[in-house]
DNA-binding transcriptional regulator, GntR family
Amino acid sequence: MQTSDKPRDLARDSVYQRLRSDVLSCELRPGQLLQERDLVGQFEVSKSPIRDALLKLEEQGLIEVLPRKGYRVRPIDISDVRDMYGLRQILESECIALLIETASDEVLEGLEVFRNGPPSPDLATWIDYNRAFHTYIAVNCGNARLARIAQETIEQFDRLTYVSVTSSDDLSLDLFVREHGEIIDAIRAGNKRLSIARARYHIQSSRKRVLDSLRHASIIDSSPSAR
């Protein structure tokens, strides 16, 4: 009789979601060491879902594998952040240009889903919405290789988005939604130059907020030792 893999899949997803949330919220500090045996005890699961979750987080640029030492929450480095934003601006500009050239009416209509932010005020839900908007443009650009690279890059920004939003006293999430709407308007009008200009402004504004936040945050200087 074949046994169901559903409980195993649920355990794997639960561990991944918990660890990802802890990394994004900096509950697990940048630079903090993680050991499989400690996480097995914490989550009361076998090593398999722990290892799967850690490797998935590594693919997203949130965890590093340290040979013979275990894992480490990837430190936030300001120089690397600058490079990430520069790369993202190049990739998303090209994705938008190709989207306008190749997208069907159905794909363009699909952008309307992102015109309004999520109804839930939960920050994790909002970060998912923000990532989904930028990913939608990437995966529908008509170039599979570009889409894959852009999507992998976009996913690495979740933690930076969290830092930016939680470090500001007066930043409204409505600002992000409004800027998304302006990008959507330009894309649907077929105005390539305006669409790219608005996307660049959106990314540059985010870059400034994140760098300002990181300069005043203790998390970028975290020791690699466990708490």
Summary: The longest strand covers residues 63-66. The two ends are 46 Å apart (CA to CA). Confidence is low (pLDDT under 50) at residues 221-227. The chain has ten helices and three strands.
